[in-house]
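Q: Predict the assembly, please.
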Amino acid sequence: MKLKLATVAFGALMAAGPAMADLVVPNLSYRTGPYGANGTQYADGFNDYFTLLNERDGGIGGEKVQTPECETAYNTEKGVECYESTKGSGALVYNPLSTGITYQLIPKVSADKIPLYTPGYGRTSAKNGKVFEWVFNAPANYWDGASVAVKYLLDQNGGDLNGKKIALVYHNSAYGKEPIRTLQELSKKHGFTLTELPIDPPGQEQKSQWLQIRRDKPDYVIMWGWGVMNQTAIQEAANIRFPMENFIGIWWSGSEVDVKPVGEAANGYKALTFHGVGMDYPIYDDMKKFVIEPGKASQGGPHVGSVLYSRGMYAAVVIAEAIKKAQELSGTSAITAAQLRDGFEALDITPARLAELGLPDFGPEIKMTCDNHGGSGMSRVQQWDAAAGKWNLITDFTEPDQEILTPLITEDSEAFAKEAGITPRC
Amino acid sequence: MEFLYASEVLVNGLMAGVMYSLVALGFVLIYKASGVFNYAQGVMALFAAMTLVGIMEGRVPFAHMINAAFGVHVENFGWTVPGLLAILLTALVMVGLAIAIEKLVLKHLVGQEPIILFMATIGLAWFLEGLGDVMWGADVKVLDVGLPQGISETVETVTNNWLGYGFFIDRLDIWAAVIAAVLVAALVGFSQYTKQGRAMRAVADDHQAALSVGISLQFIWIMVWSIAGFVALVAGIMWGTKSGVQFSLSLIALKALPVLMLGGFTSIPGAIVGGLIIGMGEKLFEYFVGPMVGGATENWFAYVLALIFLVFRPQGLFGERIIERV
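A: Predicted assembly structure:
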């Protein structure tokens, strides 16, 4: 009887878990809770790219890719539970789409030796690969975003922000607080006044902050929001007749779900992005043929081509390329998590390679090394066209101000190394 | 000028308070009639708003499930429904929901401790959250029933002419205040002057006594939950118009909690006055003290304010005095 039970249990485990030989890339997603509308689109893009590789190419290097999903609801405790419950399945890399979860996972992945890939979010100073051996955040991080936003404003003002007033409206969380230090440094360098306006999540009530903006009349508002906070902020900005073209969001405040509920009033709102958007890329020919039309798209494909779908897909592209690189380096297709880290550190996604993947000019070149886990940090500005219902890219990829950022990253990562007893490598 | 700024904050705080009161009202109705703290009230507002958008846009409910089960691709019926008719249809859905809740949940828990009923409403909240997503999808939905939004230019011009500073008041907030006033008047009128309303009050006063004079507890519960469903629909419309219909709408219940603590769980006027005090208090505190402590004080200050009131009046400003005889 015991043997029968053990056989049944083993059988169930084998059926439920991914096949042992497959490459396992857990998808720590959130399709429920206050941020579910955002998380769903990202998770769909992430899943669909791996489905495309499996259906079109038979996986990567002949190995199929499994993306077992675990629902975190953007909740840090649940995210950690998801990590603990999936890491034993041969997980190669994690991408939890949450700065809070990232902070909790950094010590865990370092102990378990599993890469953590956090494109455009997470701990900014993880860019320093000398300290954060297992964490990668290319192509851009929050401080890059803050710097590119200020650079854009400099361009708009003939290179001079002296005497200008900029308000930062931010999600009162680890995520929202990330750009403050950089913006403070940039305000000293360029002579603008920075006002910080925190908004408690989820952020449906922001009247006080926008009344203050109405009184103070800042020249520009920069936003670090997520979920309902974005829509409410854009609506409140429209309510007080703040000029939309002077309102710039970080990339997490720049998707269709943020502007569409506001309607015509959101026209002209700007946001940063580190990747292209829409379906005008050759990759979508294959996506239609191998994923969407055969009915294999995640959730049936309702969000294909949206900003957050594109971002999820882009994260999957980078991970897939790192896997390919790791396979080349190790000479084996069934790579381990440690070998994938080597793949990330040798990754070079050139513009030519992006075009080969069907994504010409989709993102900046991503070149990572042992000490640089964050790439170039380049991003660009997009603007919402409410009548057409689409985002238009209005700048080229712009490099952040490394003169300000490098010392900050060094300082923060070294402090972490000291605290965690890490000896810098490379 | 500083005084005018503070006055503007105060007026906007009162307006925000009205929005909180709209949510608190639903809690009060159910608590008053059945002694149940309905944890699902916020989710009911979300569910009602989702249903309203679904009906207005002619969406096929459970489209995902239908598509997956039958291999078809249906999304919309191909028609749209005008706002007012859609509101009426949604109100009917909320009545249906009230009947289902009574038949499937409450009926089986008659005579149980209030904590058991409270826990049942937690389960109900989880269920409704999932049901709403499965029926209508989890994406952010735009709700437009024709309510205006944005600064009231009349108020701005008038205050500018009188005081030299144009006040900001959102037109949606003005509408919310008017709607809340009508709603409270209707609720008070209903409970005072109709047979059903008097029966509802009788049940609230004493279940056993009400039963003994032939009042149907089952009918009253269905009626109260239907009214609470309608109030949730109104709150859902106002908050959904403000920032889209999405999961976060269910969290507005958190804003109603300090209002209830302050106003009392059993008083309809208490919900309104409580909302106004909380709205005004949190906005003024943020204006005067916020900058000194790094801002974002509103969420916690509302609870602190409610707690301060509780120290002096545990039953809330308008709540019934708790008398325990031993």
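Chain A has a mean pLDDT of 93. The radius of gyration of chain A is 21 Å.
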